[in-house]
Design brief:
The structure is a homotrimer. By secondary structure, chain A is an alpha+beta fold. Helices cover 21% and strands 31% of the residues of chain A. Chain A has two domains: 114 residues, Rieske Iron-sulfur Protein; 205 residues, Naphthalene 1,2-dioxygenase Alpha Subunit, Chain A, domain 1 (Alpha-Beta Complex), CATH 3.90.380.10. In chain A, the strands form four sheets. In chain A, strands 11-17-16-15-14-13-12 form a seven-stranded antiparallel β-sheet. In chain A, helix 2 runs antiparallel to helix 7. The interface between A and B is medium-sized, with 22 and 25 residues.
Chain lengths: 333, 333, 333
């Protein structure tokens, strides 16, 4: 499997997952972490592993802003420094990892790589989350490598086959769609599908005059290593997007590796339980079984060694994979 | 583990397992396959793996004689050629594997190796299946390497210890038996046990005059890589086999590797559910646990590296193993 | 993982685990064994693996003092010699391993290494087991490497954090305790904690005059590779141990590797079911989950490669680990 990119911001948790007392224990980039807040509510993150005997600190307890190991009682503050030893003075220099954390766009972002490079301006733009009205924030662990999920999202043509039940575009994607792939100045890769003058999906028919047709866009944006945003809009055909049939949608699909073969999938949805159930159904019952079948078929072999057949619709996914390879190469030396 | 022999015919399925619509998906020689029939009923076999993103085509659907991938919609015909792409023309040269298939002896035989060598005359002779009266055809996946099952069958002396309940020969195999091992002109290895003038098994006593004794033969034939046939006959002692106590039996024990550690075991049995239950009991409750215990004890080590103690009764099994080694060597270089 | 030490006595079973008929089948040092007694009751031990096809002999049966393989009927005596073959004479020289076994201290000790070095005088001293009154002897398989369990026992400071419920010393270990680490002439490593003039644990208060204080010792002794003995005593403070509050305790904690990642943990306890339940609770619900979490965090990496933080309380554990490294080196060449 490929190395993780280290010099990058990753979403570690939604803000409301991290409590004021105790902690959230979560594996990220195949290391164990504690996400917590100090007495002021400021977010922090430390390794969930005692340097003495390697046990998870999450088997211990918190005393104020000190984390006490449950095995032999060493204590650590939120900067990762060992500050307590019941049997003498804390061993000088003893330390656990404590990467930079920034709370933004409703979540905690951390930088696992070189501390000096952790520029907050590099956090990808998810302002639309802040601007959204009432919204549900969820996270789900998908049991596949994050690059396979990004491939899935960057090639939306799969919606015509895998999501025919949940939001099929009735074939209009290939009959009336046009794909544009772009790399933005900030390195983001865009895959834009624009559909012109198509028959509307069944649910939209009542919102249109009889026989009314639609324009539709499905634009997805990818930021290295794996933060994606999906933008969807349906408007009356020929109105240049000025007469929307429903309000335009923007949704984060932010992927943070849990391990090499599992991924935290952060997403948002409408505020009701029904909205969440719909999102989970698409991800868990449609996408994940297919991607898991792909991963099982690959058996841990590198993607390129499997010599995939390349289609024009793969362009965005391939640009993203190339960008990751460049970043890995740069980090390796 | 040793490489699979590739230039050989393997039984892929019994004929009645392969439907006229849809398909049978089955792993053979550690690759995924679809077994299907075209609109004329002619059998075919293609790889169950889309060359685009490697997902099983069996997650998709069949439209006439085209197989449509459920992920991005590529379509393949039964020769393995890509014949459909919803987003443009089919990528030239795109192809999945489609090995030669022949329907014979009640089953579908395929040749995974070099196509030009796939001579139908090389299919081992199981004519007795065609000639048999009403018969049940079954297949069971045994969770061990096929060579260990062949060892088991090629050394029938185990019947005296492992199958004492189901068809024990009451020790007559070693008290009155003689073993002959032969290699036939076509490369088949025969292990023949002939018992002369022995006490009959309990169930046969009523079929004989009081105090009557029997002759019995247990002959097994092995064809590389792993197609075996077992022939059993019981006759009144001293009649040179002319006065059979029950009709002579001929049974296929055809082994096709599923993976390196599991095997499709094709067998036949009498037409009733009771007949099938009896066969399954012998294979599943007597043979398989013992062979699985052997495999567990070997832990993936090569058979010869375990330095087995060699007994005279092993001769046929060792000839078969040697033949496989020759074939592997020939295929490797 | 590190190699097992071979030239050493290991406890294979408590005496009452090994029956007069049949056998006890147990994996020790990652090999399968049969423990049995001959018609005189004398203990023996042979490999649980037929040299012909490697199956466990424990799938066969015992006929008097002969072990008959359940696959093809080879028979072995308790010296490991093949003494029976139904199809001819026993293959000359055929043999399974049969290491030296000595019954002592209520258990069977075996020597897996070079037979000539198996000096009974090297069995570690557990005379206190023989001298103890009615006592329960138990064994439990803990799913971690034996060295991690020895680390746990050799650093009793964990009692203050992990065993606060079951026998917490209320912090007196670090407030009033002194640690002494010694290597005895016979190579045993001792870690001695001596507590002077401390507040008694709650359950001991009624046994003392009002406001009475205690002295307490917790001494643990380790013999390579992994036989430990724990000695605990509580006396009235200042009596130099002459006025014990409860009778002094001596308990074996004898560890025999089952595999590299699991260990037979032999222990004793009071004669009641309640006594056993208490011991199991401490080992299974307190110690094992923590040690298993440690093992999971290490993921099979060597202990030293994880670069553990070293504390003064680790001294005994480190001496023991060093001794094992010396022994391994000596055995390797």
């Amino acid at each position: 499997m490929a190395e993780f990119i280290r010099d990058a911001w990753y979403l570690a948790a939604w803000s409301d997952e991290v409590p004021r007392e105790g902690w959230l224990a979560r594996r990220l980039l195949d290391r164990p972490w504690l996400l917590l807040r100090d007495s002021e509510g400021v977010a922090a993150m430390v390794e969930d592993r005692c340097p003495h005997r390697f046990v998870p600190l999450s088997r211990g307890q918190r005393e104020g802003d000190t984390i006490i190991c449950g095995y032999h009682g060493l204590g650590f503050d939120f900067s990762g420094a060992c500050v307590r030893n019941a049997f003498g003075s804390p061993p000088p220099g003893a330390q656990i990892a404590a990467p930079p954390v920034i709370e933004r766009h409703g979540g905690l972002w951390f930088w696992p790589g070189v501390r000096d490079k952790a520029d907050p301006a590099l956090i990808p733009d998810f302002d639309f989350i802040d601007r959204a009205g009432p919204v549900g924030r969820s996270v789900y662990v998908m049991s596949v490598n994050y690059e396979l999920i990004a491939d899935n999202l960057l090639d939306l043509s799969h919606a015509e086959f895998l999501h025919t039940q949940s939001f099929g575009t009735n074939g209009s994607l290939f009959s009336h769609g046009m794909q544009t792939v772009e790399t933005a100045e900030d390195g983001a890769v865009w895959n834009k599908w624009d559909i012109r003058d198509a028959v509307p999906p069944g649910w939209a028919v009542p919102m249109l005059p009889e026989g009314g047709r639609i324009d539709q866009y499905l634009h997805i944006r990818w930021h290295a290593p794996s933060a994606l945003a999906l933008f969807i809009g349906i408007s009356r055909a020929g109105t240049e997007g000025h007469e929307m049939v429903i309000p335009p949608m923007a949704n984060p699909h932010i992927l943070t590796p849990e391990t090499e073969t599992s991924t935290h999938y952060f997403f948002t949805h409408g505020p009701t339980a029904e909205d969440e159930a719909m999102a989970r159904r698409v991800f868990l019952e449609e996408d994940e079984p297919m991607i898991a079948a792909q991963a099982a078929a690959m058996r841990g072999t590198d993607f390129w060694e499997e010599r995939p057949l390349i289609l024009p619709s793969d362009r965005a996914a391939i640009l993203a994979r190339r960008r990751l390879m460049q970043l890995r190469k740069a980090e390796a030396g």
